[in-house]
Amino acid sequence: MNKQPNITGGGRNWEWLKVEYEAVIGLEVHVELKTNAKAFCSCTTAFGGEPNTHVCPVCLGLPGVLPVINRRVVEFGLKTALALNCQVASFCKFDRKNYYYPDLPKNYQISQYDLPLARGGYLTINVDGKERVIGITRVHMEEDAGKLIHVDSPDGGYSLVDYNRTGVPLLEIVSEPDLRSPAEARAYMEKLRTILQYLDVSDCKMEEGSLRCDANVSVRPRGSQTFGTKTEVKNLNSFRSLQRALEYEIERQIAILESGGRVEQATMAWDESRNVTYVMRTKEEAQDYRYFPDPDLVPLEIDAAWIERVRRELPELPDARCRRLIEDYGLPAYDAGVITSSRDLADYFDRVVALYPDAKTVSNWLMGDFLRLLNAADLEPRQSPVPPEELASLLQLQKDGTISGKIAKQVLEEMFASGKGARQIVEEKGLVQISDEAALTRIVEEVLAANPSVVEDYRNGKEKALGYLVGQVMKATKGKANPSLVNRLLKERL
Ligand SMILES: Nc1ncnc2c1ncn2[C@@H]1O[C@H](COP(=O)(O)OP(=O)(O)OP(=O)(O)O)[C@@H](O)[C@H]1O
Ligand SMILES: [Mg+2]
Ligand SMILES: [Mg+2]
Predict the structure, then answer these.
(1) What is the CATH number that goes with domain 437-493?
(2) Position in ligand 1 atom list of the atom nearest CA 285
(3) pLDDT tens readout for residues 2-16
(4) 267, 339, 420, 452 - which has most CB atoms within 10 Å?
């Protein structure tokens, strides 16, 4: 590497340089499939477990054993390939990718090389209101490796190996170099996760490693038609680190080119604590892996009937569902995008709207307080302590005037915390809205008497003074006064 960029200091105008250069990005994504059994044996794929308890002679690569492909792996692969608009191969085979590493007991990984399961697909992303189609080069099946645990000790340290993950089925999904910014790379990754979640083929947890991503990136002068030399960045454990690592790596490459140097092809790692990429190894070539067809596994012939059955059974996918929310409910595109970004949230939305058909109000509540409370508790919509029926009855209580909007927010928090129903909380806490005109008139008059200068301001044309007076009445009634009635009563007296 020629030169490390001085990104935090040095006074270089990076924003300006980024106008002169364009980034080219392609992602290689690995997805752990949530089949019950591993790819080529019947061991469980369960995450965690005592080290080296989810193993057998096949996934440990002991002599004299033969792998057998798990039909569900192919099925999940087909689902994914079709959802990504790929062409499925009628004939494909498994190859051995040979390399030595302690987490790989066979010294080769079963993968697919020149005849992958599927090719030539795409997905669409939306960044800053701009829709882009991103090509997908291929989808292939392979197996995961084990996990190394490095232990520090005074006499130099040692490594432990856990083979529980060895042989867990993976799909590798390789994109075309169609992405042009870190934000687009992140949007692609998020969209891919959404699609995989709709298909229910993976847990898609980046922190647990069931969804992983290597980012290939190069830069070139804007307007150039040829690609620059790429580096591949690994160790990206979240969407945030994907985006930040790419930002860093793009700036590093620009700095090299600006100083007259050349980017060297390399595999880099992202250092999460120092916010930098560093060279892991200069790039190996495909021939270094000595790929050859795995003689233990028969090639796969996937007949058209199987492909058609899987295609018919595909669930409604995020883009289609998003369009449906816009067309059927008149939701704004933004709302529909947020709601359908999670299948779980979209299902929740459907169930609330079935009971409370004002879709826009439901979407406001979901995108606002509901998601805020869920995120704070680190829960998925399906784990919400507030079931859809209860959210619908809360909205109904607000609509029929039993409680004010302000109180409704308070009640939702209570519902989350206690798991109690909306009606029960409103009754127990005496939160029913005060719509009794006589009672409110008394309070309104007290507020007016106590604030003569504000009243004066309002009469001199200061409209905002009214809001203050409404606020005082709400305060006196602990938020329970009917706001429209308060407004009317105040105006009548001003
Ligand atoms: N010049 C480039 N700049 C940025 N990305 C590129 C460039 N050329 C190729 N890519 C992207 O790099 C990725 C290459 O992945 P692929 O798995 O085909 O090859 P590899 O990285 O050599 O192999 P592996 O990592 O599996 O051993 C693709 O996503 C592709 O779009
Ligand atoms: Mg690859
Ligand atoms: Mg690669």
Answers:
(1) 1.10.10.410
(2) 22
(3) 445 555 444 456 677
(4) 339
Q: In this predicted model, what pLDDT tens digit does every residue of 124-178 receive, in sequence order?
A: 999 988 999 999 999 999 999 999 999 998 888 999 999 999 999 999 999 999 9
Confidence of residue 51 (pLDDT cuts 50, 70, 90): very high
- Number of residues that make up the chain: 494
Q: Does residue 485 surpass a pLDDT of 90?
A: no
Between CA 425 and CA 417 the distance in angstroms is 11
* CB-ligand 1 contact for 210 (6 Å cutoff): no
Ligand 1 atom closest to Cα of 218? 3
Distance 216 CA to ligand 1 centre (A): 6
* Complex ipTM value: 0.95
Q: How far apart are the CA of 256 and the centre of ligand 1, in A?
A: 21
Evaluate: CB of 103 within 6 angstroms of ligand 1.
no
The pLDDT tens digits for 16-30 are 777 889 999 999 999
Q: What is the pLDDT of residues 213-235, one digit of tens each?
A: 999 999 999 999 999 999 999 99
Quote the Cα angle for 110-111-112, to 5°: 140
Q: Would you say the CB of residue 421 lies under 6 angstroms from ligand 1?
A: no
Domain boundaries in the chain?
14-305, 316-428, 437-493
b/e map of 97-108 (b: 16 or more CB within 10 Å)?
beeeeeebbbeb
Instruction: Tell how strand 276-282 and strand 87-88 pair up.
Output: unpaired
Which pLDDT score is estimated for 3? 43
Structure tokens at 101: 């590493």
Pocket test for ligand 1, best of 109, 216, 218 (most atoms within 8 A of CB): 216
SS3 160: strand
Counting beta carbons within 10 angstroms of the beta carbon of residue 415, is it exposed (0 to 12), middle (13 to 18) or buried (19 or more)? buried
Distance, in Å, from the CA atom of 40 to the CA atom of 56, rounded to the nearest integer, reads: 11
